[in-house]
Amino acid sequence: MDDKLVSPPGLAVGNAQKRSGPIGLYLFLLVVAAMVPSFLFSAVLLKRNNEAQERTVETLITGTARAIVQAVDREINAYSTTLRVLATNSALIRGDLGEFHRQVTNALAPSGSFAFVLDIDLMSILSTRRPFRDQTILKTNDVTTAERVFSRMGSIVVSDLVYGAISKDYVVNVLLGVPNTGLGPLALAFNRSARQFTPVLLVNRLPSGWNVALVDGKGKVIVASPGGGETGSDFAVSDLKPYLSSSVWGEVKVGSVKSYLVAQRSLLADWTVAVWAPSDVVSRPLANSMWSLIAGGLLLASAVMLIVYWLTLRITRSVRGLEADAKRLGAGQPVEARPFPVAEIETVSAALGDASRRRQAAESEVRFLMRELAHRSKNQMTVIAAMAKQTARGVESVPDFVTAFERRIFGLARSTDLLLAHGVAGIDLRELVISQIDPFCPVDGDRVLVEGPSLRLNAQAAQILGMAAHELATNAVKHGAFVNEGGQLAVTWQRVDNRAEFIWRETGVGDLPPQARRGFGTAVLENMVGRSLGAEVSRSSEGGTLIWRFLIPLTALDPAYAHDLDTVEGEGDGLGDGDK
Q1: Starting from the edge strand earliest in sequence, which strands make up the sheet with 448-451, in order?
Q2: Cβ–Cβ contacts within 10 Å for residue 438, how many?
Q3: Which domain range does residue 427 map to?
Q4: Which of 70, 226, 270, 464 is most buried as measured by Cβ atoms within 10 A of its Cβ?
Q5: Is residue 179 part of a domain?
Q6: Dihedrals φ, ψ of 345, to 5°?
């Protein structure tokens, strides 16, 4: 392989570390990923809501302008009706101006309006603003409107804003031509101060920041809301005609300020109602909403960041705790599960604690097995040495010694195999008995019965009972149930209080030899089973039946019981292995 293609281990680790980041960074990115789309969506919703509000305000302002025009027209209609009534006055028809002056003055006193009369020469021959005896004949200042009324006899004519020669104030006139009077054709007129239209103009309350003005046909302000213009001044928008044909507002510059304007034309006069507001007033709700959104977003983001910081601290501390536990686990130190605020981390901690307990248990078991192996090796050597001595004392020749010694070694080996296979879990008694009997006579036949409840043995008890079963099986082949075809063996056990009763019963054994000697078999059965396991051992025979009975404390058989087998007693007791 080309060395250039192989990356150094350190470089790979370094690259992996560069790709990693603190958990706080990922929490922050998660918050950003969740909040930014929300804010953008909220901004879009606010914009659409503001557009809907603008349409609502536009409709409201257009309706308000139309309502103001209708209120102005109602005022003009009222004046027109009054003029038509006055035109039928008998004093005026007779040309009795004094009586007419008296009647009209009394009638108009509560309204604050005044009347005057023009003759065909456009001279003011009567005005209710002065007493009749103080009348001064002057030519009207509103020649254009006066000429129109005399050319349209019987029709109502409304003037533009006029500066009154007598009132010395800005007024508007409503005139009606009266053709047949005792003084010839006359023009009967109402004269009203422009400022008296202010209540009409403000009959509908406008939203904050909006202005309204009543403008005559020459572009002069008749009356306006505060800040909308002074009476008699030129209106800020010189030409309102382009805005009269639309039912919605239009963009216009009022002075140097970009504004939205709605204009409505009177049906009875050459007057226009203009309602307008700077564009920033219209867009202010959106701006306020956006600033509120930004301020709220900053507060929310700050609160979320604090929460993220707090969570980061808690998670980081938990992870560092796991790191410390993992290091202790790697060093072989005990690790206990600890409570953590995050359930998943607590689960990992519990798993580490369980792994630590398992490791400690495994290490303890390994140490125990090592000690047990060393101890058992010594014991095995002791047992084998005792077996060799006892076997040698019970035979007459070397071949007999070898055969007997091999059988006992193999029986001990089978017990050892079971011990290694099951370890600290314990060896099943049934399996142990079968392993020792089966080489002499198959247990699955009709001649052997092995029966009893499940009972597990510790290593010491298994080794001792295995050797005992081997000796008994060997004797059954030599002198007992397995000598004749009709012999049978029944091995049974049961629990009696706190002891186990183990019975070896052979039937059809014939005449049994006398117990003249004590060999290795007797040592195993009486000394090792009796003394090492604390058992009561008894032997009885009658009528071709041999019974060995063992009462063993359950504590000596329990796999948790670790009593050591030190030595095999009775090495010099004397008899060979042929005793029954």
Answers
A1: 448-451, 488-496, 499-507, 545-553, 536-542
A2: 15
A3: 375-557
A4: 464
A5: yes
A6: -65, -40
447 three-state secondary structure: coil
Tell me the per-residue pLDDT of 94-148, one tens digit each, with 9 for 90 and over: 888 888 889 888 888 877 778 889 989 888 888 888 888 877 788 888 888 888 8
Within a domain: 458: yes
- Report the candidate in 571, 206, 256 with the shortest Cα–Cα distance to residue 385: 571
Closest to 243 measured CA to CA, from 213, 269, 265, 263: 263
Q: At what angle do helices 398-422 and 343-393 cross, to 10 degrees?
A: 170
Task: Count structural domains, the chain.
Answer: 3
With beta carbons less than 8 A apart as the criterion, state whether 462 and 418 touch: yes
- What is the model's pTM? 0.49
Same-domain pairing of 398 and 545: yes
Angle at 135 between CA 132 and CA 141, to 5 degrees: 130
Measured CA to CA in angstroms, residue 15 lies from 8, 29, 440 at distances of: 11, 21, 70
User: How wide is the angle at C-alpha 226 spanned by C-alphas 221 and 227, nearest 5°?
Assistant: 75
- Integer CA distances (angstroms), 539 to 474, 550, 568, in order: 16, 9, 21
- Backbone φ and ψ for 261, nearest 5 degrees, come out as -130, 140
pLDDT tens string 142-190: 888 888 888 888 889 998 888 877 778 888 889 998 888 888 899 888 8
Strand partners for 503: 492, 549
CATH classification of the domain holding 172? 3.30.450.20
In one-letter notation, the amino acid at residue 344 is: E
Q: Which of 121, 244, 95 is nearest to 183 (CA)?
A: 95
Q: Which of 140, 168, 190 is the last residue of a domain?
A: 190
The count of residues in the chain is 580
Q: In whole angstroms, what is the distance from residue 505 CA to residue 541 CA?
A: 10
